[in-house]
Amino acid sequence: MSLLRRRLAKQSVNSRILFQILADRSFSTVKFPPGRRSTTEFDQLIYKAGSSGDFETVRRLLTSRVAHGCFNTSDTFKFLTNTASYSSALEDLRRVLPQIDGRFTRKNAYDILIARLCKLGRVEDALIVIGDMSSGRFSLTPSTFHPILCALARKNKIEEGWRVVESMRSNSIPVDITSYNYFLTSHCYDGDVEEASEVMRKIEKDGISPDARSYDALVLGVCRAGKVEAAMAMLRRMEEDGVNVLYSTHAHVIAGIVEEGYYALGVEFVLAYAGRDLRLDAESFGSLAGKLMKKKRFEEAKIVLKEMVMRGLRMGDDIEGIL
Prior knowledge:
The protein is mainly α and 323 residues long. It has a domain at 35-142. The chain is 70% helix and 0% strand. The protein contains 17 helices and no strands. The chain is elongated, with a radius of gyration of 26 Å. This is Pentatricopeptide repeat-containing protein.
């Protein structure tokens, strides 16, 4: 038994020596730090390796970080920027990513790269990377497409977005509610209730249940369209149906009420929901007070601020001085 222990101990020592040799090989521009490693450390090491063009080290770091419980972040590919070296860096990443060990590790790296490309405004390149994943059968999922749909929706490139949706379907990737919500939010932000309704019909046709974000977008849309009464009715319906109401949904209604000049109704609205959720109270009362002051409706603002004092709600310095 003691002989077995000595053998295992020797193998363990040899493994550590081998790992150190691999880490210190001359082709690597990055030295692995001793001891436990953090997510930030890995991001910094990848930044250094990617910036120096050492993409074999980038690959090894991407492979080993997940084994250490350090998953990729939005900073993982920060070295990839809109500079003269962008094209060559992207090509090198496309070369080494398929060589990453581990199905989950490889997919996660691809997903983070696509998100980075979209942040840089390189949607076409993100779609090329999607093509790499498809041809390599590297586990395409709806979340892989989310950054692309989000980027296109924000730029109001709706038709291009729907073409991406068709691409998802052609790859047998289900279109989830998050994917639809990007279109819904884009239309509702513009107050285009008719187009938003069309998206809702597609959601229903696919047999998908709207979520809190879907309803939040719809409330925003009717408020932007000047239909505050409809927004308040929708909010009540959400509560009756047991839908989780986001804080932002209340904020949309408050903004719509004030914008339409229903100042007294705004006060009634926040009072009607007061006492249920302390954070909601702080945000709703504070938001209404600030908007009323911008409209120079100081009397209504004083009522709201007095309620905040009575309820022990914190108020900003910009609105406290009115009392």
